[in-house]
Amino acid sequence: MPDHAHFFCRAELDAKTLPLFMQKWKQWTGKRAMRELKLDASLWQEEFFDHLLRSGKSYGQKWDYVKENPARAGLVDRSDEWPWQGEIEPLML
Predict the structure, then answer these.
(1) What was the pLDDT predicted at 89?
(2) Closest CA to 71 of 61, 85, 59
(3) Is residue 58 helix, strand or coil?
(4) Using only C-alpha atoms, what is the Rg of the chain?
(5) CA–CA distances in Å: residue 36 to residues 3, 43, 72, 84
(6) Which residues make Cβ contacts (< 8 Å) with residue 25, sequence separation at least 6?
(7) Which of 28, 33, 53, 70 is the most exposed place for a label (fewest CB within 10 A)?
(8) How far apart, in whole angstroms, are the C-alpha atoms of residue 19 and residue 6?
(9) CB-CB neighbours of 1 under 10 Å
(10) Residue 71 in contact with residue 78, Cβ under 8 Å?
């Protein structure tokens, strides 16, 4: 997506460490993208929005939503045409 990213992860993080993890991830990816793409502006917004997925069903629903984003935005006709589509991994609860 041209204006946001979705990031699925499973980690042993509590509510206090997730913001720090996201800050470090944004720093690392932002610096690399700025270097590779020769950007001169910040890449990420400071805030982030998290959703706790409590079951395989909710995980699948969110994945389907994310997968369809490029088609809903009119960037491709079908979601499977999006070249930067990720892969879903089985949820281990």
Answers:
(1) 67
(2) 85
(3) helix
(4) 15
(5) 18, 12, 28, 17
(6) 7
(7) 28
(8) 15
(9) 13
(10) yes
Using one digit for the tens of pLDDT, what is the confidence trace for 32-72?
A: 988 888 888 778 888 888 877 878 888 888 888 989 999 99
For 29, how many CA atoms within 13 A lie in the half-sphere containing its CB?
11
Tokens of 19: 């913001």
Give pairs for 55-61: CB < 8 Å, separation 24+: 55/91, 55/93, 56/91, 56/93, 59/8, 59/91, 60/88
Picking from 43, 42, 59, the residue whose alpha carbon sits closest to that of residue 51 is 59
Res 53: pLDDT: 80
Does pLDDT of 74 surpass 70?
A: yes
- Looking at residue 85, its amino acid is Q
Token pair of 36, please?
């590779």
